[in-house]
Amino acid sequence: MDLLAIAATIALLISLIVWLKLHPFIAFLIASLFAGFALKLPADQIPGIIEQGIGNTLGGLVGIVCLGAMFGKLIAVSGAAQKIANVLIQFFGQRMITWALMLTGFIVGIPLFYNVGFVLLVPLVFSVVYRSKLPAVYLGIPLLAALSVTHGFLPPHPSPTAMVPMFNADIGTTLLLGLLVAVPTMIVAGPLFAMTLKNIQSKPLETFLPAELKDTELPSTWNSFITALLPVVLIASSVALPKLASNEQQTQLLQFISNPLVVMLLALLVATYTLGIKRGTSVTKLMVHYGEAVKDIALIVLIVAGAGALKQVFIASGVSQTLAELLNGVDINPLLLGWLIATIIRICLGSATVAGLTAAGIMAPVVAATGANPNLMILAIGAGSLMCSHVNDSGFWMYKEYFNLSLKQTLMSWTVMESIVGVVGIVGVLVINGLIT
């Protein structure tokens, strides 16, 4: 009966989002209430359990996500993203321009959330299209593959960051392993796959041509690259820092410095000076940009909160442990199972974030019961959450309209690219798992 309750809850969640078009946060709350009753929790305790799930999930996450949004906003409005794109395109030249665009999407996509990165970088692709006369899809797919990879695999993006506490994983280790998976994945789904798309012709709408800043208005090359990559360096170093201590006092200090919230605050403060104050932007104007950034990601934070509520209902009812014990006897790699569950939910719902967090709520007890690597489980679910993007995904339609493509062309390019990311991603996760176990 418990498994039927889980299946009914997921079916209800899908129906509320797909058919009734409810916002995922509202749908998660309704599904959580339904699950509470279906799993026979005491009625008076269900609201408290939901509140506990929301609080536990957002407690260690909301600060990191909001600081990350502010950081990404500054990278965009300061011109650092444009500078990075210009330098890479000039360095690689037209013969390897798809590799330059892939790296642009990867470097800029680390601090920028997906929708913001899409809106910012796709117009830059179109400016390259008009200058080089090369097909828009051929140039755009490598950049978008890199954006998808950072969105699904790498902190401080919301979904992988939110899964870190759900699995008791380590954010620095997740980032390092995520980079190992991300690089070959975006190469295959980006420049290599793009070579098959040269015959897809499209004329991007002139509306989306960017109003680029003048070169004199852009930050320096070093400033742009070092500042944009600072969160990656700091989060990655958080793995090693505590191990350098020689006494208890040093251990406490290094653990404080390597805390993800402190890391993101430090990165933002550095960027505020190097890309803002140092270049003549007033603190008041910077704070306006930061306020806009938080508004941009508010709905994502609510989705994460809703997923946390549903996860807590599963835990409180004991069904998570029942599910873990059941799956523990099934002859399937738990990483592959997490990927498969995320894939199914992604196909049904469309949202990568919702798919990833819903699958994580189901798989959290399985990780504890099977001893699966929690950092790799985050990446496996992230890969599944990117699979098979189609007509129920907002990203599918953004790509179609921006690139002015037919439905068939969008399926042949975007949907296949996202599926390649998902398949190569899980293969990379399984290879790493085989090497370290």
Automatic annotation (TrEMBL):
<feature type="transmembrane region" description="Helical">
    <location>
        <begin position="297"/>
        <end position="316"/>
    </location>
</feature>
<feature type="transmembrane region" description="Helical">
    <location>
        <begin position="222"/>
        <end position="241"/>
    </location>
</feature>
<protein>
    <submittedName>
        <fullName>Gluconate:H+ symporter</fullName>
    </submittedName>
</protein>
<keyword id="KW-0472">Membrane</keyword>
<feature type="transmembrane region" description="Helical">
    <location>
        <begin position="136"/>
        <end position="154"/>
    </location>
</feature>
<keyword id="KW-1003">Cell membrane</keyword>
<feature type="transmembrane region" description="Helical">
    <location>
        <begin position="253"/>
        <end position="276"/>
    </location>
</feature>
<dbReference type="Pfam" id="PF02447">
    <property type="entry name" value="GntP_permease"/>
</dbReference>
<feature type="transmembrane region" description="Helical">
    <location>
        <begin position="411"/>
        <end position="436"/>
    </location>
</feature>
<dbReference type="InterPro" id="IPR003474">
    <property type="entry name" value="Glcn_transporter"/>
</dbReference>
<comment type="similarity">
    <text>Belongs to the GntP permease family.</text>
</comment>
<feature type="transmembrane region" description="Helical">
    <location>
        <begin position="55"/>
        <end position="76"/>
    </location>
</feature>
<feature type="transmembrane region" description="Helical">
    <location>
        <begin position="174"/>
        <end position="194"/>
    </location>
</feature>
<keyword id="KW-1133">Transmembrane helix</keyword>
<feature type="transmembrane region" description="Helical">
    <location>
        <begin position="336"/>
        <end position="364"/>
    </location>
</feature>
<keyword id="KW-0812">Transmembrane</keyword>
<feature type="transmembrane region" description="Helical">
    <location>
        <begin position="96"/>
        <end position="129"/>
    </location>
</feature>
<keyword id="KW-0813">Transport</keyword>
